[in-house]
Amino acid sequence: MSGLQARLQHQFSDPKLLARALTHRSFSSDHNERLEFLGDSVLSLAVSALIYDRLRDLPEGELSRVRANLVKQETLHQLAAGLGLSDLLRLGEGEARSGGQKRPSILADALEALIGAVFLDAGYLAAEALVRRLFSAVEISPQMQATAKDPKTELQEWLQGRKMKLPLYRVVATLGAAHKQTFDVECEIAELGHAERGIGGSRRAGEQAAATAMLAYLKTHQK
């Protein structure tokens, strides 16, 4: 843990936050999903500020696509691997046997949980500084906008283009054994009074599946 804190350049005042951030739900009931939820929002804000500074000439829609590239699972997985999180994750026996230490979704979620933990431990400025250090070696350029949009980003842009509020995502249920769980996620657009659901192998994947279902509904029922 001391080596990780050195790599993060953050010494935790509350070591329990660090331990929780690295704990998968298959290991303990005191796991990292709430921290991941918090870290996801902190990460989005910090990355938004970062690209707002660096890409001053890009309009809002293109900034959104760049951000989607930076906070997607693949990018976060690479950053988490670079920090050596694979060797520090606390997993249940079944999850560990099935290769959970290397699973991109688990590593990406743990990184978000770490960001959430830093936020609780020392406040937003410390968490933002961590995000900027993490992304310091990542090439950020306008060309990133050309990458295909993920469903959550596409749905967000559809709603923003119509001056509507962002969708609400919530986990309706978790299914299966602890080491092979799937997440049933609901995506709700309150202004339309409509919700769709999707299932994925992680909360993030479930949200993307729910957003895909919502997009399909909107393309059929909305102009």
Verbal overview:
This protein is mostly helical and 223 residues long. It has 2 domains: 1-147, Ribonuclease III domain (Ribonuclease iii, N-terminal Endonuclease Domain, Chain A); 149-223, Double Stranded RNA Binding Domain. Helix content is 55%, strand content 10%. The chain contains 10 helices and 3 strands; from the N terminus they run H-H-H-H-H-H-H-H-H-E-E-E-H. The protein has helices at residues 2-8, 15-21, 33-54, 60-71, 73-82, 93-97, 104-122, 124-134, 151-160, 203-221, and strands at 168-175, 182-189, 194-200. A 3-stranded antiparallel beta sheet has the order 1-2-3. The longest helix is centred in the first third of the chain and has 22 residues, at 33-54. The chain is globular. The model has no long low-confidence stretch (mean pLDDT 87).
Key phrases:
Double Stranded RNA Binding Domain; 2 domains; about 55% helix; about 220 residues; three-stranded antiparallel sheet; mainly alpha; Ribonuclease iii, N-terminal Endonuclease Domain, Chain A
Furnish the topology, listing elements before pairings.
Blueprint: H1 2-8, H2 15-21, H3 33-54, H4 60-71, H5 73-82, H6 93-97, H7 104-122, H8 124-134, H9 151-160, E1 168-175, E2 182-189, E3 194-200, H10 203-221
Antiparallel strand pairs: 1-2, 2-3
Distance separating the two termini: 52 Å
Determine and state the CATH class of the largest domain: Mainly Alpha
Q: Residue ranges: pLDDT <50 for 5 or more in a row?
A: none
Taking all Cα atoms into account, the compactness measure Rg is 18 Å
CATH topology group of the largest domain? Ribonuclease iii, N-terminal Endonuclease Domain, Chain A
